[in-house]
Amino acid sequence: MKVVELLSAAVIVLTWAAGCSGQADSHTSLNGMWKFAVDSVGVGEKEEWFSGRANRTGWKDVTVPGFWDELGLADYDGAGWYATTFAWKDTAAFAVMFEGVDDDADVWIAGRASGSHTGYNEPFFVLPPHGVKGDSISLVVRVKDNGGPGGLHRSVSVVPADKAEELMKSPEASRRARVSAPWVKNAVMYEVYLRSFSLDGFRGLERRLKELKDLGVTVVWLMPIHPVGELNRKGKLGSPYAIRDFYGINPEFGSADDFHSLVDSAHALDMRVIIDLVANHTAWDSKLLLEHPEWFTHDSDGAIVAPNASWSDVADLDYRSHELRKYMIAMMRYWVREFDIDGYRCDVAELVPSDFWDVARRELERLKPVLMLSEGSLPGHHLEAFDITYAWNTYDVLTSVLDGSASAGRVVDIIRRESRRYPQGSLRLRFNTNHDKNAWDAPAVEKFGDKGADVTAALMFTLPGVPLIYNGEEVGNSKRLDLFEQVVIDWKSKGRHREVYRTLGALRHDHSWLSTGSIRPLKHNGGGSILAYVRTDDSSGTSLLCIFNFAARAAVLDVPIPEDMQHGTTTDVVTNASLPRQGQLKVHLPAFGYALYLISP
Predict the structure, then answer these.
(1) Total structural domains in the chain?
(2) Domain boundary at 515, 534, 552, which?
(3) Does 150 share its domain with 210?
(4) Residue 422 · residue 173 · CB < 8 Å
(5) Which of 153, 340, 440, 557 could form a disulfide with 526 if both were Cys (CB 3.0 to 4.6 A apart)?
(6) Domain membership of residue 573 as a residue range
(7) Is the Cβ–Cβ distance between 309 and 302 less than 8 Å?
(8) Reported pTM
């Protein structure tokens, strides 16, 4: 993901700048030389590095925008502190605007905490303490990085506060997203890593389709099913994303007949099947590289190169080749035509030109309606090529909300910011883990705790968008499912997790409007670890009141019911019990607990 955003950053910055060009006279650019220090042991806040009086004689000079791997910190994950000063003498209030930070940020202006942001590569702004102005205002930013090189990698500027909200809007925000089929919009997606799911590959998955149906799953996403390369392979089995033959099937998983049978069985259960498409690169011993080396990216010496140093097991494809584009589209059509699959999850989609995806989508639609999921977060992907993009932002905020370092209300702030960036009606993929996060971060039950995995799952199912279940979550899988070896899920593990997903899946099935309905925060007296919001179906007037406790202690709180919801029936989604109508709800939540109430007119 990090590399995707890195290589696409220039395009996004140019787009954002163009959208703001009309306000250029009111900008004060803060790009240029800043001071920088690594906080590898996390003492910066305690030692008040944010203070304008902090001693920065040992700090390095760095250029903003930029990544800190330029300082030889490519393998460093942690916090980095940036400091500069600027002048603002205008009587009008100002805001400091960031076009993108890798990954999260805390901001101090004039030595005082002024705001925080969670959400990789997204623009945001913070407001200073009241009355701040002068010739030398200190600005300090702590960047918290979650993997790979971090930094203030996009422009920073000072703008009038009353212009900030408007400047946050992307050019795409005023447009409509492509209209997705109802089965796409209302999907509950289930990601399958066949190596871990079953020792019997396609047949093992086919036997368990009814279990997935019982969870409310409507779309099954298979990670790459193709043969894996051997040259420069990582681990014993190699990454499933190092593909040797785009037209082949990995014999680990079964035969073409087995795959046909799986897709047919899923369709018989009114479920769809999509497969992973790795269009950006291939294995070093792929048929494509052996037959068409001219379709790959070459360095100045003429050697084929990897997409980046970390991805040493794959070779980068060059989409300047018209013949490569024709080949890839023909291959995509093949799997839809010959196996009747229902679409693709497109790996590192931002590394492949958007105009390729636009053409590919049109060609696939000539065969049948499909679902296209982008592993990326470009707003423009929603206009033509893709139905859904990855919502890394809502995953990234979970840790800080659960450990209390961020208010739970930040979740709604993230959704609000999405409306300023994405086309109207955009569908985002919501998840509390996936194959990357399970393998490189931790399984949900390890990262968030056993109860924390449930409350974060409930959150993702009740936010606007399309929810994702990663295989094994329904049994509380605690294993890291290695991408280069075989680690099999222990399906004998039981517990309440399956029932949690069954309830959430049924909720989505019965109330399809949850994918795009409105969201508004609700007042409560529970403090920063409590999140309360209401989702409403404008056409029927039905609402879902959602309350979450992200603390390790029980909570009792009062939640006023809005006046427009004072009449009708209130039902507890989990217990199916009817609640008496009253002006407010008194809610008892256990540690890492949640409550969901349907309010029908």
Answers:
(1) 3
(2) 515
(3) no
(4) yes
(5) 557
(6) 518-600
(7) no
(8) 0.89
